[in-house]
Amino acid sequence: MKTVLITGCSSGFGLETARYFLERDWKVIATMRTPHEDVLPRSDRLRVLALDVTDPESVRKAVDTAGPIDVLVNNAGIGVLSALEGISMETAREVFGTNTLGTMAVTQAVLPQFRQRKSGVIVNVTSSVTLKSLPLLSVYTASKAAVNAFTESLALELQQFNVRVRLVLPGRAPETRFGENARPRIQGGIPEAYAGLAQSVFAGWAQSSAVTRALDVAEAVWRAANDPSSPMRIAAGADAVALA
Ligand SMILES: NC(=O)c1ccc[n+]([C@@H]2O[C@H](COP(=O)([O-])OP(=O)(O)OC[C@H]3O[C@@H](n4cnc5c(N)ncnc54)[C@H](OP(=O)(O)O)[C@@H]3O)[C@@H](O)[C@H]2O)c1
User: Fold this and answer.
1) 95, 182 in Cβ contact below 8 A?
2) Stated pTM of the model
3) How many domains does the chain have?
4) CA count, 13 A, side-chain hemisphere, 68
5) Domain that holds residue 129
6) Which CATH number characterizes residue 22's domain?
């Protein structure tokens, strides 16, 4: 029986992915900043552990407690939507700290066991905004594009140890808590000079019917984890697939 460790399982894609692997008889280590066992079905194959990807001690403790795993899914992430002029450097650091450095930190903690066992899969969840740029997402896009570049280089480094690395690129998913969780980061609102641009971006989103469901992402992560012939970049969701 295989074991997957997933970051950011309190909601959205991480929660759905944890459910998806549980339903397919995997052992699931669902990690969350604040553990809530009750968001997932009861199972003796489920462990819920605390893990904040920005806290080195928390990363170390979670990976030590988890023990041997077969697949790591770096899903935890945060968003910010505004013009660059409206984003403080503190917020930019927070976004990179979670999305980019958090992914690197958890990967680094898991790698020794993968390398020694000469097996393992790392799946990094980035975004379809790295396939087609959108305005007001410069900082967020940069944080995810960095993960794409990191992942594609790392894959070459780890080939010799039979460790596979993949990217899952979801499209826009209004069903998750992503937008709501990003709101505190744009408390000052979008700067007035960009209000017209923002209106046209929001109007475009309101019109587009193709979106990504959490289930699309769980399926893409499953494919990345189980299919060695899967491509490096796997688009998830109708909108992302159209862009790819
Ligand atoms: N929704 C979209 O439109 C969309 C599109 C493309 C890509 N993505 C990416 O998909 C991933 C999942 O997003 P989602 O849509 O499922 O959003 P979500 O519902 O907000 O879920 C994000 C998860 O990440 C966790 N998280 C945030 N900061 C963390 C930290 N420092 N340490 C550990 N966990 C942390 C959150 O935990 P808390 O509950 O503790 O905050 C939450 O469980 C993210 O990487 C996101 O960038 C989202």
Assistant:
1) no
2) 0.98
3) 1
4) 8
5) 3-243
6) 3.40.50.720
